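CATEGORY: protein folding

GOAL: derive structure tokens
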Amino acid sequence: MSQLKELPQVSFAEAAQNVFKKMFQFKGRIRRSEYWWGVLVLTICAIVLSLIPFIGQIAVLFLYIAATSMLFRRLHDTGRSGWWWGCQFCLGFISLIFFCHSH
């Protein structure tokens, strides 16, 4: 594996801004600090939005897309492909279907 250059840390405010600015950006890299601050921002937003009926659930789906794009970019930063997440998701979905049909 090649040596990857670590990027400088980002602040909470910059990470929160980037979460929504790069919501649909699946290519590129994301710093470790930006990823974890983004996870915190998305978690807080999801908790608040889940309290709003119907509209909140739709908004949480968009937050899930943002979280997935952050995960893809973080995997790229560690030298891995976003397909790692795709394989895990598919296996989990297949397991869920198998478990539900077995009962």
Observations:
- The CA atoms of residues 53 and 91 lie 31 Å apart.
- The mean pLDDT is 86.
